[in-house]
Design brief:
The structure is a single chain. It contains eight helices and nine strands. By secondary structure, the protein is of the alpha/beta class. Helix 3 runs parallel beside helix 5.
Length: about 280
């Protein structure tokens, strides 16, 4: 198994915002604990003012299921995270392989900075996973059914953005694994975009042009509820070229009145490049 060392650089960029939020929470908690407490429950402060966060990250339990579970080394932390992924999603082989290779690569980082292990625990669970039915009619007049997916994995770096994949091999585990890998890919590119991936188990290579068009329109009819400018920007992927993107965008434009953001068309391959250029003074 080949592990790319560039994961560490991407992980630092993604984890920076999580660490800042955790440090801010610790600072606020310390300020609250320095004030005198009149009672356990007060109208101004509530019950959580008595909680004291530990300063040493190694003393914090990584998991609190059937007893506190702590780690002493980065390799032990990575094994605990992989075991947790096996416990929750053992049926998703692609996702387990992606988690295992990434956590093993990040184990030296967990050794130097144990707090990143807690960030990794949060990244193992996507923010939102959407699965829906896609009903479309073939050329014979028979109604066909496929499964549509869209996973909005992480918005730590910005609005969601990610490809759409079409193929008979596409399933929930593959979409979840690609979404997890896309988190680190976006961290390396430098674009302020989050991670999302979508697709369907529809095979476009043995379908006619009219069938592909009807499927794309049916797929976007449901997907339009969850994507949009500055929310989630689908891009081209495997089995989804400019022609399929045209069908998808045309259906989105019929449903929604707003399809641009800052004079940049939605679902345009250059939209992320324009956002990057706006950052350059």
């Amino acid at each position: 198994m080949i592990v790319r060392p560039s994961y560490c650089a991407a992980y630092r960029a993604i984890a920076a915002r999580h660490v800042q939020q955790q440090q801010a929470a610790i600072t606020v908690t310390r300020l609250m604990s320095s004030t005198p407490k009149k009672h356990l429950v007060t109208h101004e402060e509530g019950v959580h003012q008595t909680m004291k966060l530990p300063t040493a990250w190694r003393n914090k339990p990584l998991f609190r299921r059937q007893g506190d579970v702590r780690f002493k080394s980065g390799m032990e932390a990575s094994k605990l995270l992989i075991a947790e992924a096996h416990r929750r999603d053992s049926h998703e082989a692609e996702y387990i392989d992606s988690i295992a290779s990434t956590m093993e690569c990040l184990s030296p980082l967990f050794d130097r900075n144990p707090r990143y292990a807690f960030v990794a625990k949060q990244l193992m669970e996507p923010e939102r996973f959407i699965q829906f039915r896609v009903a479309w009619m073939d050329d014979v007049g028979v109604v066909r059914l496929n499964r549509g997916f869209r996973i909005q994995y992480s918005s730590s770096l910005g609005p969601y953005q990610g490809p759409l994949h079409l193929g008979s091999h596409v399933n929930g585990g593959l979409i979840k694994a690609l979404g997890f890998d896309n988190v680190f890919s976006n961290g390396l590119t430098g674009y302020d975009v989050g991670s999302s991936v979508g697709g369907s188990d529809f095979n476009p290579f043995d379908k006619s042009e009219a069938e592909v068009q009807r499927f794309c329109q049916s797929y976007m009819t449901e997907l339009a509820k969850y994507v949009g400018p500055d929310i989630d920007d689908p891009t081209m992927g495997m089995g989804v070229a400019e022609k399929e993107m045209g069908y998808l965008f045309g259906q989105y434009k019929r449903i929604n009145a707003k399809f641009t953001s800052g004079n940049v068309p939605f679902m345009n391959k250059k939209s992320s490049e324009v956002r990057q250029m706006e950052k350059i003074p």
